[in-house]
Specification:
single chain, mainly alpha, two-stranded antiparallel ribbon, 11 helices
Length: about 260
């Protein structure tokens, strides 16, 4: 598997693959690249409908040029907490942001949510988000309003009366419950079609199978979400060496 940055020719192949309606995995297979590389390349350069090979290549060159200008780093810049690799953290944030965008979040909202997820405190003020994301206060305000309307974050005031935005760990449970309800609704609608199309007909049999499948999947999701709910609130234990270890929590929950 080749390493290094994508070449201009590879980007042209990506553009052709998108135009032909190929999935990211298929494009990656043809280029002998990881699927995550293709996904990240497309999502950071306009998405599947707006991707252009020439613009993507120039954008990558500009980013590389900016990084060269930044190095060496300002010695006064505070180090990453817990000895983290700053470049690895940035790369991970891009990966997580891309995943959220694939699941339907607009780019700025995905960036803001990722920023909150990877912050140890799980909360930031508007000014801190502006500084971390290097965007305008208006962009942060719009992103926060959207995320809050979707129940993905909540706000509270700290001891200095500043408004802080927090990721709500329970949102993953609520998301699974909503998915279970959507599956149940699909199953119900499919069964309505059985009566309309006539029991015993091929179309009705197909819809009945869909309904049974969605019933099973929905019930399984709801049951698993309820059983695993407490995992979302488990706190990592500190080992003798001072590092966090959540394995004991996970083990006790699964038992």
């Amino acid at each position: 598997m080749p390493g290094g940055r994508l070449t201009q020719q590879e980007r042209q192949q990506i553009a052709l693959g998108l135009a032909d309606g190929l999935a990211y995995a298929e494009i990656a297979r043809r280029l002998d690249r990881p699927t995550s590389t293709i996904t990240r390349e497309v999502m950071r350069n306009g998405g599947p409908t707006a991707y252009r090979a020439d613009l993507a290549h120039r954008a990558t060159e500009r980013r590389a040029h900016r990084r060269r200008q930044i190095v060496p780093r300002d010695p006064n810049t505070p180090p990453q907490p817990h000895g983290r690799d700053a470049e690895a953290v940035r790369e991970y944030e891009e990966t997580f942001t891309t995943l959220l965008m694939q699941q339907g979040l607009p780019k700025m909202m995905a960036r803001a949510l990722t920023c909150l997820f990877v912050t140890d405190a799980g909360s930031l003020t508007a000014s801190e988000l502006v500084e971390r994301l290097q965007v305008s206060p208006a962009s942060v305000s719009k992103a926060i309003a959207f995320l809050e309307s979707q129940g993905l974050i909540r706000r509270e005031r700290d001891e200095r009366r500043r408004e802080r935005y927090l990721v709500d760990d329970g949102v993953w449970y609520q998301s699974m419950v909503a998915a279970a309800r959507a599956n149940a609704q699909l199953a119900q609608t499919a069964r309505q079609g059985v009566g309309v199309l006539g029991p015993g007909t091929p179309a009705a049999a197909r819809l009945e199978n869909i309904a049974r499948f969605m019933d099973f999947v929905g019930e399984s999701i709801a049951r698993a979400a309820e059983q695993a709910r407490e995992i979302l609130y488990a706190k990592p234990e500190t080992t003798a060496g001072g590092t966090a270890d959540a394995s004991s929590d996970a083990g006790s929950t699964s038992a």
